[in-house]
Design brief:
Layout: H1 12-27, H2 31-44, H3 49-61, H4 65-78, H5 83-95, H6 99-112, H7 116-122
Helix pairs in contact: 1-2, 1-3, 2-3, 3-4, 4-5, 5-6, 6-7
């Protein structure tokens, strides 16, 4: 007969709710609140690339550039063809005063997905 512990710990559904709430917090310009929720999600699911990408965006919005850089890098290790992650990492490098690293990732983003914003940032004409 199965034994029920009555545990009220986080469930997979709780993590989905936290992820969605973090999206809303980021949209409402509360990146630090989003990071707090995502920390729990990532602690339970470190392989969740979507949560890492959202946390990277939240770190960037909170001007926490080093943690943003680390998270974008993890995303790109898992998804090297993620044009948005390249673009966002480039913006992070740009804000950190590292233009040589930024241009490389702007160009990778534009090559992967030639959106006008990516192509303009890539400055292929220079």
């Amino acid at each position: 007969m199965p034994e029920f512990s009555g545990s009220t710990g986080p469930t997979p559904e709780t993590h989905v709710i936290d992820f969605r709430a973090a999206e809303q917090l980021l949209a409402a310009r509360d990146p630090r609140g989003a990071v707090k929720l995502l920390d729990k999600v990532i602690a339970a699911h470190p392989e969740n690339t979507a949560a890492r990408l959202l946390r990277a965006r939240a770190f960037f919005a909170a001007a926490q550039l080093r943690p943003a850089e680390l998270e974008f890098t993890i995303v790109l290790e898992r998804e090297p063809d993620n044009a948005f992650a390249h673009f966002a990492l480039a913006r992070t490098y740009e804000r950190s005063g590292r233009p040589e690293q930024a241009i490389r990732h702007f160009r990778l983003a534009a090559a992967l997905d030639p959106q006008p914003e990516y192509v303009a940032a890539a400055r292929f004409d220079t």
